[in-house]
């Protein structure tokens, strides 16, 4: 019997929604339906599945739980976060305008500026923490407002409800990239967003072993358009990939609590360190978006960025010197990572007006022991500036 998980808490839905025991075997875990096609009982008579590009039962389970966790009517899963991004742009036409956060993932900026711009999609950057700036940047031809909150890499906080209110009566859709928060900490659809996007590679997968993406929404017409183009263009994840994301979702709540706890401790430590110039973390009381984040998020997530005193060589030396924090792109896994955005995740924005500071480092704070993480950063900072880093 299929249970109704609609009224249950997040943690319960993460484990059960869309994931009933297998009706054939009773298997408690959703099977990996590793098949390209499905046998039909007669021509045009199938059991809900025809071909693996169009639908797959494992993918359907992931989509159902993602929709439930974000408070959406539907979800679509993709081969990557950028595949999800590409599919959203099938909603637009040549001549349309996109308003993009000035602090956005480098891959998103690259896709819009260097791919979609060639096909007649115009775009402009705006600081979406400034609602008046957003109001002034909206054009009659604006069809999509694309924001991240917290943003990548400066952890800016956008007032989702405030932007949604600005767009009331305007045809533009509001999309929120919710990757840094995860569905556990923030639900943009409930704050007025039209679409939510995730790189499921990150916190949703949570174990650095899968690449995927998702879009969630409520409007049936948008779903029909996205689903048609997804099937036509083939931007789908494989069944093993969606199974890994399903496995990760089951522990999302407890992981996000530990990520947030560790990040708060790391941010507080860095804020007092003499080798650190500035710390970017919405959980700090002096963060300019702290009050909005506290209002629209359950906690402040596990991402921390900071600038070091000195030059770019000092920053890259810190990144090279950590032992527990591994030097790598990506984020949201159980293990802690460090990266230099200017030369790694955001290298593609050089010369666009959206450059990041050369001494900026970004941390994805994992779920290791809090004291071990702080000790690792302490020794790495001492390598660069031993005179000022001694405490």
Structural features:
alpha/beta, Aspartate Aminotransferase, domain 2, Aspartate Aminotransferase, domain 1, 7-stranded mixed sheet, 35% helix
Structural summary, described in words:
The protein is α/β, with parallel strands linked by helices and about 400 residues long. Helix content is about 35%, strand content about 15%. It has two domains: about 240 residues, Type I PLP-dependent aspartate aminotransferase-like (Major domain) (Aspartate Aminotransferase, domain 2, 3-Layer(aba) Sandwich); about 140 residues, Aspartate Aminotransferase, domain 1. The strands form two sheets. The chain has a seven-stranded mixed β-sheet with strand order 1-7-6-5-4-2-3, with helices on both faces. Strands 8-9-12-11-10 form a five-stranded mixed β-sheet. Strand 5, helix 7 and strand 6 form a beta-alpha-beta unit. Helix 1 packs antiparallel against helix 2 and helix 12 crosses helix 13. The radius of gyration is 21 Å and the shape is globular.
Topology of this structure?
Blueprint lengths: L9 H7 L40 H14 L3 E5 L2 H8 L8 E5 L4 H9 L7 E5 L4 H7 L4 E7 L11 H7 L6 E5 L4 H4 L9 E4 L14 E5 L2 H14 L5 H11 L2 H21 L3 E5 L9 H7 L6 E6 L3 H10 L4 E2 L9 E3 L20 E5 L5 H15 L1 H4 L2
Parallel strand pairs: 2-3, 2-4, 4-5, 5-6, 10-11
Antiparallel strand pairs: 1-7, 6-7, 8-9, 9-12, 11-12
Helix pairs in contact: 1-2, 2-9, 10-13, 12-13
């Amino acid at each position: 019997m299929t249970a109704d998980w609609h009224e249950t808490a997040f943690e319960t839905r993460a484990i059960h929604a869309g994931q009933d025991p297998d009706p054939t075997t009773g298997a408690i875990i959703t099977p990996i339906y590793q098949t390209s096609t499905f046998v039909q009982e007669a021509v045009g008579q199938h059991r809900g599945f025809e071909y693996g590009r169009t639908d797959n039962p494992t993918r359907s389970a992931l989509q159902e739980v993602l929709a439930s966790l974000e408070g959406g009517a539907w979800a679509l899963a993709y081969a990557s976060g950028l595949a999800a991004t590409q599919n959203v742009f099938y909603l637009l036409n040549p001549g349309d305008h996109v308003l993009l956060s000035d602090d956005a993932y480098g891959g998103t900026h690259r896709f819009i500026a260097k791919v979609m711009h060639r096909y007649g999609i115009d775009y402009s950057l705006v600081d979406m923490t400034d609602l008046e700036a957003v109001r002034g940047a909206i054009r009659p031809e604006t069809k999509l407002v694309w924001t991240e909150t917290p943003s990548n890499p400066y952890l800016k906080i956008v007032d989702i409800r405030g932007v949604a209110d600005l767009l009331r009566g305007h045809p533009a859709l509001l999309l929120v990239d919710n990757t840094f928060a995860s569905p556990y900490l923030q639900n943009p659809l409930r704050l007025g967003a039209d679409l939510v996007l995730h790189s499921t590679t990150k916190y949703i997968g949570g174990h650095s072993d899968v690449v995927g993406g998702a879009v969630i929404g409520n409007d049936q017409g948008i779903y029909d358009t996205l689903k048609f183009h997804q099937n036509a263009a083939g931007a789908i994840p494989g069944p093993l990939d969606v199974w890994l994301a399903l496995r990760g979702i089951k522990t999302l709540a407890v992981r996000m609590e530990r990520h947030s706890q560790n990040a708060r401790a790391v941010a507080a430590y860095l804020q007092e360190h003499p080798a650190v110039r500035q710390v970017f973390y919405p959980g700090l009381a002096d963060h300019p978006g702290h009050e909005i984040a506290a209002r629209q998020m359950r906690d402040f997530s596990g991402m921390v960025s900071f600038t070091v005193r000195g030059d770019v060589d000092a920053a890259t030396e810190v990144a090279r010197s950590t032992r527990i924090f591994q030097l790598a792109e990506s984020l949201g896994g159980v293990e802690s990572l460090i990266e230099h955005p200017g030369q790694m995740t955001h290298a593609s924005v050089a010369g666009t007006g959206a450059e990041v500071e050369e001494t900026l480092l970004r941390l994805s704070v994992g779920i290791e022991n809090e004291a071990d993480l702080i000790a690792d950063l302490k020794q790495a900072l001492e390598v660069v500036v031993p005179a000022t880093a001694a405490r």
